[in-house]
């Protein structure tokens, strides 16, 4: 279940709503930057790509296979207040319910 604290400033509440929209609809990643590009004998082996969510500022780093362009791994760095408490899981359904009010 989603437990929202309402003893926060209007700015924090506005950001809470942005977080809920991202939880409900997914992130809007922009500003792609490639780094740690690995090449061997002139062929691309792998690289990492960083992007930032336009709405909530979550940062994502994708490690990408340079041969197949498949995603090897995704790493996320969430803004303060985005993550739920330990043991608490906020589903897309929870986020839609909270946004409905
Ligand atoms: Zn987001």
Question: What is the gist of this entry?
Answer:
With 101 residues, this protein is α+β, with helices and mostly antiparallel strands.
Write the layout of secondary structure elements.
Blueprint (H helix, E strand, L loop, with lengths): L9 H16 L3 E12 L2 E11 L5 E7 L5 E7 L14 H9 L1
Antiparallel strand pairs: 1-2, 2-3, 3-4
Helix pairs in contact: 1-2
This protein binds zinc ion (ZN).
Gyration radius, to the nearest Å? 17 Å
Low-pLDDT sequence parts: none
Number of strands: 4
Count of helix runs = 2
Shape, per Cα inertia axes: elongated
- Helix vs. strand class: alpha+beta
Characterize the biggest β-sheet. 4 strands, antiparallel
Helices and strands, in N-to-C order?
HEEEEH
């Amino acid at each position: 279940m989603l437990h929202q604290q309402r003893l926060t400033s209007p700015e924090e509440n506005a950001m809470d709503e942005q977080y809920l929209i991202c939880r409900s609809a997914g992130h809007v990643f922009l500003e792609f930057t490639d780094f740690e590009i690995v090449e061997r004998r002139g062929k691309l082996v792998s690289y990492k790509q960083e992007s930032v969510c336009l709405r909530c500022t979550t940062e994502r780093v994708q490690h990408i296979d340079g041969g197949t362009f498949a995603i090897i791994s995704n790493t996320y760095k969430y803004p303060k207040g985005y993550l739920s408490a330990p043991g608490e899981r906020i589903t897309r359904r929870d986020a839609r319910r909270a946004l409905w009010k």
